[in-house]
Structures are given as structure tokens and as C-alpha cells.
Amino acid sequence: MDEESIRHYETIALAEGTSKFSTMKDENVKDMEVEQISKAIEDVLSGNKKPVDILEVGCGNGYTLEKLVGRFDFGRIEGVDYSEPMVEVANSRNFPIARISRGDATNLDFEDESFDIAFTERCLINIKPFESQTKAINEISRVLRPGGVYIAVEAFEDGRKKINDAREVVGLDEIPQPFHNLFFHQKQFLDSVKDAGLSRYKSSRGAVLPENFLSTYYYGSRVLYPAIAAAQGKGLEYNNAFVEIFRHLPPVGDYSYIKMFILRKDFPKEI
After folding, report:
1. pTM confidence score
2. Domains in the chain, please, with CATH?
3. Which H helix or E strand runs over 55?
């Protein structure tokens, strides 16, 4: 993470504290991310009779981890973040069983095959360049046990282009990539996880959680709502009554740059 990005997150840590808005101002997006990660973990734990060990890489102020700790029976719980102020805020939650520490996603301070589940929530996009993002993916794979699962909630240029194409039709400006982020290209990301020994997770339940879980919400909140507001000469605001309905509709299309991929670490091939 470069110095400008580090200062950005230090400022957020001081300003937002333990707030759910620490790294996401859109309440609906944050709630949907947490719920989707929870559903993925629930699916992975289906039929599992013993506590599992979980790691969050880029835990920020600990908001998501706190929500998950209250829902599931975990064994070992670890959270790491590069920002020391964020780690301090997360530790202020006084987790009874979780350990939060400063760490580098490209060089995780854990033994090989230490965890059953690892997840990131808009973490790897803060790492530059792409080669360093790849190192982080390899590190996550390294610390997972064979058969373990990596839940990746990250941002992708493919979705950003799609929603900007829709915005252009109604006369809206392009949504830029934040200065502190480096969005993945989906094919590039999937090639990287494959090289790291990770493959698409297949649910034992038969159901597949949608990767584009935010698409409909983003179309409503980033295209329809701002187009209507612009036509009426009104400013924009997050978390309004108009956009909330879109979080309850099924996801269609590819209109969100934030997606979730569930990946399983391959078992060693028999010789």
C-alpha cells in the first residue's frame, strides 16, 4: 500500500471509529456485503460438526468480523490489517475470542494450511501493482488448508465499465476508480486464483450464491436514482428511501463493480 493510501485509511480510522461506514458510505452495500459473506460461510459450514478457523485479510475497523463472530461457531479467529490505526479501532471492540493484528496481505505471518476459511472485503484492490495483488492471492491460498475456502468480495473493471455505459446513456458522468484502488479485470483475477491452486466453489446444497449480488442495487442507485435526481435538479445522497427497494430485488446483469467469488483450495493431486 502506498503512502497516500495509508494516509487515506488513517484519516478514515480517526474520523469513523467503529462505524459501519468506515470504508463504505453506502449502508445498503455494506449490509449486503456482510449478508452475502455470511451466506457463503453458512453454505461452507453446512454439515460441518466442528468449529472452523477463519481469517479476515484487511479487516479494517473490525465491523464485519464482529458481525460474523456473533453468528457462527468459530474456533480460531484472526483479523489482519495493514493500517495500524484501523487495527487499534478493531481491537477497541474487545473481541472475546478474535485476535486482531497488523499484517501485510502479501506476506501473511501465519503457518501454511492454518485456516479453513479466509475472506477479503474490498481489500486486495488497495494493493498495487497487480503483481502484488497476485502475491496476496498466493498468500491466502498458502494459509488455507486443502479444501478450505476463500471468499473474495473485490472490485472489477468489467462491472465499472458496464455501469458507466448505462450512465452515459442517461447523460451521467463516469464513476471513476478511486485513487487508492486498483480494480481487477475479471479474467485476470480468475487466472490468478487458478494459478494459486484455487477453483470455483461448488455448493453441496446445489444452490449457487450470485457473484453479481449487487448488480440490481447498483443499477438502481447509480443509474436510475441519479438520473431522476439530475432531471429534477436535486443533489445526491446515500441511503435514501428510493434506492432501498433495489437491495431486495434479485440481481441481474453486470452493473456492479463489486462482486463475490467463492473459491476452494484444491487438494494435492495423487502421484
Report:
1. 0.96
2. 3-158+177-214+255-265 (3.40.50.150)
3. strand 52-57
